[in-house]
Amino acid sequence: MDIESPDKLIELLDRHAYLADEGLATAVFLALKMGRPLFLEGEAGVGKTELAKTLAALLDAPLIRLQCYEGLDAAQALYDWDFARQLLHLKAAEAAGITDVSRLEGEIYDRRFLIARPLLKAVETQPSVLLVDEIDRADDEFEAFLLEVLSDFTISIPELGTVRATTPPVVVVTSNRTREVHDALKRRCLYHWLEHPSFDREVAILLRRLPDCTETLAAQVARAAARLRQADLVKPPGVAETLDWTEALLTLGAKELDPGLAAATLGAALKYREDVASVLGNGLLSHG
Amino acid sequence: MDELVATVTGFARTLRAAGVGADHERTGNMLRALDHLDVADRGEVYWAGRLTLCATPDDLPRYDRCFAAYFGGRKAALARTGTTSVTRHLAAEPEGEGGDDATAAPATASRAEVLRHRDVARLTEAERAEVHRMLAMLRTARARRLSRRFEGARRGVLDPRRTIRDALRKGDVARLRRKRHTTRPRTVVLFVDVSGSMAPYAETLLRFAHALVRSEPRATRVYSVGTRLTPITAELRHRDPGTALNEVSKAIPDWSGGTRLGEELREYLSRYSARGAIAVIASDGWERGDPALLGAQMARLARQAYRVIWVNPHKGYEDYQPLTGGMRAALPHIDDLVAGHSLAAFEQLGERLAHA
């Protein structure tokens, strides 16, 4: 697929129901052209993960996701051996009276006993989109390791040899910024800070994603969401939450947002008890 | 030199002067990005630079200012704000009653022992220097917690990888190998109040923070609080305490102001996380902001953190009562309220962090 400019990308992403602005489109454009990972930071729910999914659909490539968590290590990110099957094979060999160690070793460290985890899978699958989700949750040891893999997309397996990607996967790294990620990793990437969408864009997103939604309802929800983001909450609603909220309203057959309906469905937008209480208590839903 | 290269390098230099880490490698990335974009298009040049030269949301407003200034035709005169030293900030503070004792003899054991228990706010310059020397040598251990990683062990869960290796070597599955979780030091997040009322203690507290960072560089995070939240861990990583403190004093913009701990904790909690960490707040609790807000943020912090310790210099005195509004609001959410006025108190705090 030939993508000649950031504007073309805006159009292509739009076809897949993802509305990107100039900044994000340029970021994706450069990531594709320069073969560099895209490092996306921003509040939860601004559409970081969604972008990776859309990109996979757009490029018609499988999405390979590595969800990060504390203690994530190489065996869980790269590859692992299928020990149960290896043991069975050894037992079978023992029963058959085979004692040649080097032959046995060759047999059990065969590709068919190898389980590819996301990073190896991404290097082996071409083309592919690799999503390294919430890197801020992994620990610093893992960051250093990831930097190495992202630098040359080569994975060496001592028992088997080296696996190299002929075309590197498209990589999207996301962070909610609960922890500062090491600069060396960011330097490898293109860095983009994703903001909550503007009012107009959010209305457009709601209409694009939820065909049953009326313009009135979309505008009302987007306005309410913008107000909630101003309201100093523990977890302000992101686009994902506005979408959920609108969907909840549509399920109830709502044509317009009234305070009663809003209060009844608020749980789709707000995920903290204190937030729901403070919004209801301050009458934030009753005007507009 | 090519004109484009000169322009981009000059722009990167302007950014560095404004405090954005636009180093050599990043400048190269911007040039590579421009290969794919239209250099005559202001918007595309803006994004090429922003995507390659910036690394944190804090960089973005600085980037915007520099971009407007640099590509608006004139180069911005954006130098870092003048540096000030800790000593100057603290110069206005009351000196100890002993006067200057510049030719202090090396501490004898008993004198050191007396010094260890004295309130640092009431020491002479020389005595304080002595205490700071002892603080610089303070090495604290850290309580450990189980990590998700494994190491080989006699007892524990089955380790298939090593069992297979063994079996291969010996020819049959003779012995099952085992593994268990390793441990990691528990993270400490320390908030040091540098507002006016804490001025007599601020330097000593920062030196204590330096000792903590030096003891456990990867498991300590330090922020100064006052009227704004400033991360200072990187500055405290310098081996030499004097250099580290100098860097810290450059980084902190709000020395000796008031305290808005509630707002700052809220900022901390919305940006970072203290999950599983030991949170330590060093402050006298003279809150200028809304105590109710402080209470609510302390409740959030207490739910996230493994333990919340409040260090109050005044706790060292027997008649101390936590009566200030801030202290009263915070109290229900604190696990330990401890003293922080003397070397001995800091040593005890260090012990507590080792066994939390």
Give the helices and strands, then pairings.
The complex is a heterodimer of chains A (288) and B (356).
Chain A: H1 6-15, H2 22-34, E1 38-41, H3 48-59, E2 63-67, H4 74-77, E3 79-81, H5 83-95, H6 101-108, E4 114-116, H7 118-124, E5 129-133, H8 140-152, E6 154-157, E7 161-164, E8 170-175, H9 183-188, E9 190-193, H10 199-209, H11 215-230, H12 239-251, H13 259-265, H14 273-281
Parallel strand pairs in A: 1-8, 1-9, 2-5, 5-8
Antiparallel strand pairs in A: 3-4, 6-7
Helix pairs in contact in A: 1-2, 10-11
Chain B: H1 3-17, H2 24-34, H3 42-53, H4 59-71, H5 86-91, H6 109-117, H7 125-137, E1 144-153, E2 157-158, H8 160-170, E3 178-185, E4 188-193, H9 199-215, E5 220-225, E6 230-231, H10 233-236, H11 241-251, H12 261-271, E7 278-282, H13 291-304, E8 307-312, H14 325-330, E9 336-339, H15 343-354
Helix content of chain A: 40-55%
Going by helix content, strand content and strand pairing, the class of chain A is: alpha/beta
Task: Give the SSE string of chain B.
Answer: HHHHHHHEEHEEHEEHHHEHEHEH
Q: What assembly state would you assign to the polypeptide chains in this entry?
A: heterodimer
Quickly count the helices of chain A. Answer: 14
Total number of beta strands of chain A: 9
What form of chain B results from the Cα inertia axes?
globular
Describe the structure.
- The complex is a heterodimer of chains A (288) and B (356).
- Chain A is α/β, with parallel strands linked by helices.
- In chain A, 49% of the residues lie in helices and 13% in strands.
- Chain A has helices at 6-15, 22-34, 48-59, 74-77, 83-95, 101-108, 118-124, 140-152, 183-188, 199-209, 215-230, 239-251, 259-265, 273-281; strands spanning 38-41, 63-67, 79-81, 114-116, 129-133, 154-157, 161-164, 170-175, 190-193.
- The model of chain A has no long low-confidence stretch (mean pLDDT 90).
- The N and C termini of chain B lie far apart (59 Å).
- In chain B, the strands form two sheets. Chain B has a six-stranded mixed beta sheet with strand order 6-5-4-7-8-9. Chain B has a three-stranded antiparallel beta sheet with strand order 1-3-2.
- In chain B, α1 (3-17) crosses α2 and α2 (24-34) packs antiparallel against α3.
- The chains are: A alpha/beta (288), B alpha/beta (356).
- Chains A and B meet through α2, α5, α6, α9 and β9 of A and α2, α3, β1, α8 and α12 of B.
- Chain B: InterPro entries: UCP010256, Uncharacterised_CoxE, vWFA_dom_sf.
- Chain B: This is VWA domain-containing protein.
- Chain A: This is MoxR family ATPase.
- Chain A: It comes from Nonomuraea helvata.
